[in-house]
Amino acid sequence: MKLDVRQIYEDIDKYMDQEIVIQGWIRNHRKQKEFGFIDFFDGTHFNTVQIVYDNSLEDFSTISKYRVGSAITVEGKMVKSPKEQQLFEVVARKVKLEGDSPEDYPIQPKRHTREFLREVAYLRPRTNLFQAVFRIRSLAAFAIHQYFNDRGYLYVHTPLITANDGEGAGEMFQVTTLDLEKIKDGKVDYSKDFFGKKVGLTVTGQLEGETMAMAFKKIYTFGPTFRAEKSNTKTHASEFWMIEPEIAFCDLNELMDIEEDMLKYIIKYVLTNAKYEYEMLDKYVEPGLVKKLTAFVDSEAARITHEEAINLLLSSGKNFEFTPMHGQDIAKEHEKFLTEHFNSPVFVKDWPKDIKAFYMKLNPDNKTVAAVDLLVPGSGELMGGSQREEDHDKLVARMKEMNVPEEDLWWYLNLRKFGGCYHSGFGMGFERLLMYITGIDNIRDVTLYARTPGNCEF
Amino acid sequence: MKLDVRQIYEDIDKYMDQEIVIQGWIRNHRKQKEFGFIDFFDGTHFNTVQIVYDNSLEDFSTISKYRVGSAITVEGKMVKSPKEQQLFEVVARKVKLEGDSPEDYPIQPKRHTREFLREVAYLRPRTNLFQAVFRIRSLAAFAIHQYFNDRGYLYVHTPLITANDGEGAGEMFQVTTLDLEKIKDGKVDYSKDFFGKKVGLTVTGQLEGETMAMAFKKIYTFGPTFRAEKSNTKTHASEFWMIEPEIAFCDLNELMDIEEDMLKYIIKYVLTNAKYEYEMLDKYVEPGLVKKLTAFVDSEAARITHEEAINLLLSSGKNFEFTPMHGQDIAKEHEKFLTEHFNSPVFVKDWPKDIKAFYMKLNPDNKTVAAVDLLVPGSGELMGGSQREEDHDKLVARMKEMNVPEEDLWWYLNLRKFGGCYHSGFGMGFERLLMYITGIDNIRDVTLYARTPGNCEF
């Protein structure tokens, strides 16, 4: 009976004393004169399986030479293990080599630095650390889909190639089929380009998402977005996945409720479904990680206004590198102070309008917008949301002020004419979430093959 | 109590005779002297809700002027409907206008052509047809995630910006941050480009997916892919979503089992969860749709070799525009004949090597590869899969034959050195699937904002 290791761990009793076939890889191999012990994994479960074989096997000496990293098929019997801490082992009747691995296989059973592992990024998923990270990534993605699907949200695929700059920040990659080597004197004829005009990679699916919220009430996107920003930091990548829910008939307070509820749901889901992975992360990556996450699930995120945040920072008595100022953005060090002060995620709302995007709803004070950022310990801003400006004329005025071209967004403006309503939405960077829930401090280590300035390998 | 229409339809008894608040849009509005009837939808359920109001309301005459398309908040009581076919209606105590809609609102309650609706693509999600299509799109996506998650597959996000051409077909969009208008005499300095080299948008996540299958055994991708192909047909888009599972220790027969099982799972899921949507599609879009899908779930897909397929075509006595030939590709008309002949989806396997990609496993006959296409009635090729060439030297030889640059794919080749194993995978175009399961015959009508040659609107 061919089994995944996951199936075995889910029902050990069922398979005990049964003949089974498992297929996977050698993580470690110890040989003695009469016995051999293979630490076996197949990637479907965090735990390895101990394979025991002895010299009664005809090809004992051949098997004993199988190297770390090799792919094997094992036929054998599941038995109770003599070792107390081990629930079972497999006594092999046959160990077939499916694919060899050379002496210089880079992933040996020892500690590797994360820097080294980035260089062999195509092999690092076979290590304990990345088995945990990518399993949690997959589980968290599923939790997100389940959360929204169960609540009647529509999952929407917004386009990635776009002719409009949704954030108005001008940090877009250009997409083209023009032959650059045929461009003479900078004369570019976009009528000859694939789409007949200049296009780029989207920085957000929000605006298109809003068109769907005006038809399905509750929608979310979950897809890649891009920033051609030359930031070489631990938290920036040029290509990353975003979740962007958009909800009609929803104000800023209801939005914060949804953000918090969703985040707690995801955390509970991964803590429950990645128990062994979390044991390891808690031990080797961020001591206290499980406690931090559990505490958040059991508590409430703080909610303060931007003004209150600045007052808190000013009265803290701390010497910040950047002095906190009313009307100004909040620096990393300030975010850190706030999350430590509350010892939990913190919603900061009602931001100065001049440092926020054009589509955010102007508050009655005419100075702030109904925007909210969620700051989390360790990875800073995790979600950014706002109530959207639903008043057509106010929105046009903001676009003029901020030099956002109206002609590209005629349809977005029209949403305010054809049955518009108050509505809100937020964006959550998926990799930022993963950093928070795994304790990994570099976005390159929660991404399969990260794209950053100067780096597009694999 | 604020409710989604979906919540009401899921438990009508629970809310009967209760005071409720619902928020959504006017699909239709009939006014009489003493009564008004609003056909109300909020996008969370396919069915509308009848709102009744009478002239005992203070603002009766104002309400009676609310136009089709307007957003409203309704407070009222759920009551049994006097009409037999209607399970309930809402007697309004208050109808508040949230957002007006002008006289010339394009989505009036009448039949619109799909061509017209494409022009107002940002509003068409509010029509019956697109409520059904996009709900099924969302449900099908969820079914896919659930299918794979339940079976222990890892969900993988492969990069979209890439320096390699995974299919070797050369139909990639280029991605750049170079200022095209500063290019002089075609001199392009890629060391100055964002990633320091020439990059483009991926045509497949398969190669990167294989690196993950060699660590997690069973993985799948579900993300956007791109083709800069100037095909202006009903089935081609330049940007579309693909599902690409990749399974270690899996041969071609097991792969077909997985493909068929997954497809049946998705179909059962949408038929169960989109009952009302399917009633409408079956009536107005593809008569017999539900029967077609149910029949497939209850039957088995045919499985034939490419050679058998050609023989079948040749002996059919049909006059094809393109004569079927051994060793050659199969045309649309041939696909159509085959699916009609078997009256079910058809797997065609063991294709001539010269018309297939470099990474497919060479069969012992040295002429064919272990590839399989699934053809489905109405949308032709739905999935393409293969066992992958796991032999390093044979793979290199194929790459040389087909001019696929080895230096870009050193890591892919290395997978055959470091614990490689027999493995298989397939790709399914998500929009093709949607065309098959909705009966919609144009890819532009299952995509929110389609990208096709010369077309990048919204």
Brief account:
2 copies of one chain form a homodimer. With 458 residues, chain A is of the alpha+beta class. Helix content of chain A is 31%, strand content 24%.
Describe this structure in words.
Chain A is of the alpha+beta class. Chain A has 14 helices and 16 strands. Chain A has helices at 5-10, 12-15, 60-63, 114-119, 128-150, 206-216, 252-273, 275-284, 289-298, 306-314, 332-342, 392-401, 410-414, 430-438; strands at residues 19-31, 35-41, 49-54, 71-79, 89-99, 154-156, 161-162, 174-176, 199-201, 218-226, 239-248, 302-305, 346-352, 368-376, 380-387, 423-429. In chain A, helix 5 packs across helix 7, helix 5 crosses helix 8 (275-284) and helix 7 crosses helix 9 (289-298). Strand 8 of chain A pairs antiparallel with strand 8 (174-176) of chain B, so a sheet runs across the interface.
Strand arrangement within the widest β-sheet of chain A reads 6-10-11-16-15-14-13-12
Which assembly state applies to the chains in this document?
A: homodimer
The helix/strand class of chain A is alpha+beta
Number of helices of chain A: 14
Element order of chain A: H for helix, E for strand: HHEEEHEEHHEEEEHEEHHHEHHEEEHHEH
Distance between the termini of chain A: 36 Å
Question: Helix content range of the residues of chain A, please?
Answer: 25-40%
Mean pLDDT of chain A: 96
Question: How many strands, what sense, and barrel or not for the largest sheet of chain A?
Answer: 8 strands, mixed
Identify the most extensive interface between protein chains.
A-B, 108 and 109 residues
How much of the residues of chain A is beta strand, in percent? 15-25%
Q: Would you count the extended β strands of chain A for me?
A: 16
What general outline of chain A do the C-alpha atoms trace?
elongated
Low-pLDDT residue spans of chain A: none
Integer-rounded radius of gyration of chain A = 27 Å
